[in-house]
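1st attempt posting a full record on here, be nice pls
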Amino acid sequence: MTSESQKFEKFGADWWNPAGRLFSLHRINPLRFGYFESRAGGLEGKSVLDIGCGGGLLSEEFAKKGALVAGIDLSPVAIEAAKAHAAQSGLQINYRVASPAALAKEGPSFDIVVCAEVLEHVDDLRAFLKDSLSMLKPGGLFFFGTINKTVRARFLALFVAEDLLGMVPRGTHDYARFIRPSLLKEILEENGVGLSELVGMSYDPLRFEFRISRDTSVNYLGYARKR
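the predicted structure (as tokens):
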């Protein structure tokens, strides 16, 4: 387990508490899943790998739409929370404590691979994405969501969101790990995956909600297709 994954060991039951320490994930989950679903071209019967699935918030949404979902995470606590909630919800999801590197060695392939709110927590982005994208079928889709490496992101995602408003537990993010879209696009291309779209996920302080926007300077979502 990495030092980054250890941060999420302490959340436990909070994964499924909309008013808990991870309440901001519950706020963005419908928005990010709605975006991914709109680009998927239908989910019924498609195989989906949710990497860094945490407690399973996104995994369950894909499963509810008829996808065949597998979720992996390095946190045993998160995986146990995910398994327990899926059982309560009557959903069949294959959850495992595993890394992309370990799973890739087994040779599975998926129609969709998802990395949402995880890329900014990995130690070696290139190696992580190489393993993750190797499990994507030709023509398959890669869905992602992460944080841009800008001065504005440093101010809003760290100082405002963590220190000032407590929207995210303090210490969750490290600016050094934030990712410029240009770097992400470069790594995708290295692995035979072409970037199809990039959109922003912006916070509206007047309505206390997130929305899809053209502003990618802080949080951004997108999808890419394997050639």
